[in-house]
């Protein structure tokens, strides 16, 4: 009897460990994929053609995975005055988180970046975008997030931005800056719709989140390490400006 009880106990213990392991697999997968995405950061050449504007302000709209990390990165870029998380590419009536998460709205999670082009150029913003903010070789996904709403896309707001974006992608492809083709789409900006309030400055308000620690905080460290001339320690916040 003691031997049987011991065997049953060992089997139960083994099954419990297996169950815990299976429950942990998605989390471990997210961690490994996040680390892989973080390791994708690299120094890229500056755009050979850039926009030189004397206007006091300009806006860029970029999509590249979850907007938490995108917003967090660009809030640390010198010359940027405001970064808003939101949705673009679809209709106004579908621009809400639960609907966009279904992947059928045409929207992409994106950020609207307001910046002073006399302090930071559009080309420099794109350099950070391709270098540290996301992986431009992943189609309809970034790390653990999958779906068209996580696609890589540049929404230009004028012909000068379009010229810089197309020229820079061609430059990076010619230089074989990435081991895989760049899949970033380039389209004219449609409507941009700010995301719900709890998404704004999410990275700043939730630094203890495992998702943020694995997927997004390394991007900010890479910005600081790879482009110290672009980095500022104190982020510009949406919630602080309300």
CATH class reads: Alpha Beta
Mind summarizing the main beta sheet? 6 strands, mixed
Q: Beta-sheet strand percentage?
A: 15-25%
Report the span from N to C terminus.
70 Å
Tell me the series of helices and strands, N- to C-terminal: HEHEHEHEEEHEEHH
CATH architecture: 2-Layer Sandwich
Order of strands in the sheet with most strands: 7-6-1-3-2-8
For the residues shown, what is the average pLDDT? 88
Uncertain spans: 1-25, 27-37
Strand count: 8
Task: Please identify the structural class as seen in this structure.
Answer: alpha+beta
What's the number of domains? 1
Helix content class: 40-55%
Shape type = globular
Task: Specify the number of helices.
Answer: 7
The named CATH superfamily: Peptide methionine sulphoxide reductase MsrA
CATH overall fold name: Peptide Methionine Sulfoxide Reductase, Chain A
Q: Specify Rg, calculated over alpha carbons.
A: 21 Å
């Amino acid at each position: 009897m003691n031997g049987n009880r011991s065997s049953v106990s060992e089997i139960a213990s083994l099954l419990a460990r297996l169950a815990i392991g299976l429950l942990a697999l998605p989390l471990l997968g997210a961690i490994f994929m996040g680390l892989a995405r973080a390791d994708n950061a690299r120094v890229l050449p500056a755009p050979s053609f850039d926009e030189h504007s004397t206007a006091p302000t300009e806006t860029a709209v970029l999509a590249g995975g979850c907007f938490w990390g995108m917003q967090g990165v660009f809030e640390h870029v010198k010359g940027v005055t405001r970064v808003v998380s939101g949705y673009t590419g679809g209709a106004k009536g579908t621009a809400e988180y639960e609907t966009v998460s279904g992947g059928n709205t045409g929207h992409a999670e994106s950020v609207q970046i307001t910046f002073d082009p006399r302090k930071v150029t559009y080309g420099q913003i794109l350099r950070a975008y391709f270098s540290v903010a996301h992986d431009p070789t992943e189609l309809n996904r970034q790390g653990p997030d999958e779906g068209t709403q996580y696609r890589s896309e540049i929404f230009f707001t004028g012909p000068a931005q379009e010229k810089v974006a197309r020229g820079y992608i061609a430059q990076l492809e010619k230089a074989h800056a990435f081991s895989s083709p760049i899949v970033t789409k380039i389209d004219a900006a449609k409507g941009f719709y700010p995301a719900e309030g709890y998404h704004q400055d999410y990275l700043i308000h939730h630094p203890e989140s495992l998702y943020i620690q694995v997927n997004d905080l390394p991007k900010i460290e890479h910005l600081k390490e790879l482009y110290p001339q672009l980095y500022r320690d104190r982020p510009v916040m949406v919630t602080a400006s309300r």
